[in-house]
């Protein structure tokens, strides 16, 4: 009970910072949409290719945006020794992990909704199976947020963190990209039977790395 | 904590070193001349004498890294020894993974007609390569021994548990979307006789090389630490004026 209360405090703090600084809304979201537009330049929009590969492009864009969101989540702790302040509050490491993870997941989910609308409009995608999409997206988002938070704290405070984070995070997320893309393909084509196993994989990934984070984050968080 | 400055007993290491040299020479003789060319694959088959042992050692090296990392995280067995072993083994693992990919690609070109195929094993190995490249990049960042050790160990475990998930998901993806086109059973030759013997020599020789290099890399890490310590001591001496020979 206490864990959840502490986690929601951390999440609320991070989301409040985002709401006030508007970095996520003003920079990360436009970044995602311009990437989606750039894909249309790279792949001829008239050939119909864009519509077919839309799920993959969508999730690649989300991954790139997630790198920014994770970097941002730990950059706010660097300023004015906020990290030390947060540590001195005596909050449990697991709660800090869950809170930061929830905030990143909420930001990404928000981004996915707006980016999804943009992709439907820009790429001319028809949505047939909303249920599958709604089951897959949160699982993929939690998977990205949990590994992102873990690697975020690993790289936090290191001089080369901006370049290190993508190298660490992207290979680990290969199964998430694969699973989310296949699940979305199934959902868009109205073939949910192909999609459900992938949704299962995404949930397993998310659960596994969330548990890993709850166990390991405290050690990294107290580490200096 | 009593960090050992030699991983293996020097006599044992010498035996392993000599064994590795003999093994590699034997592998060259058998691999290049002793073993007959394959019925279907011809001379390209000889590449497998490098490919198979490097793939085995790549996975073995990462397993060693994972075990050493877990032992470092466990408070009772925490010792800088395990951090050094993890790092040394991961470095060798990345080298063997790279070798696996390059040799496999050279083999694939004449046999499959392509340098690269989107097969589950290939994709997993490629992802593995990048996973541990990131781990090595993280290791290169200096810091206090215990806190960097914990950081490294957790990163190694995150990467290690990802490997089966990657493999499983890629395999699933490929079987759902297309039937295996390149690994058709006709091509995978049955291995017996001198060819099998050569393969066993290759695996043994590579394993000995791995153990020997692991010991040497460990020693290098010890020397690195000593060097850093001495540089600090020297700097303190110069600063406090105890060493008039320097800075005149």
Distance between the termini of chain B: 40 Å
Tell me the overall shape of chain B: globular
One letter per element, helices H and strands E, the order of chain B comes to HHHHHH
Count of alpha and pi helical runs of chain A: 9
Short account of what is shown:
The complex is a heterodimer of chains A (224) and B (248). Chain A is mainly α and 224 residues long. Chain A has helices at 2-21, 23-42, 49-78, 82-88, 93-123, 130-155, 161-172, 174-189, 192-222.
Describe the structure.
The complex is a heterodimer of chains A (about 220) and B (about 250). Chain A has helices at about 1-20, 25-40, 50-80, 80-90, 95-125, 130-155, 160-170, 175-190, 190-220. Chain A is an all-alpha fold and about 220 residues long. Chain A has one domain. Chain A is globular and about 55 Å long. Chain A starts with a helix and ends with a helix. Chain B has about 250 residues and is mainly alpha-helical. Chain B has one domain (about 10-180, about 195-240). Chain B has helices at about 10-35, 50-75, 80-110, 120-140, 145-175, 195-240. Residues about 180-185 of chain B have low confidence and may be disordered.
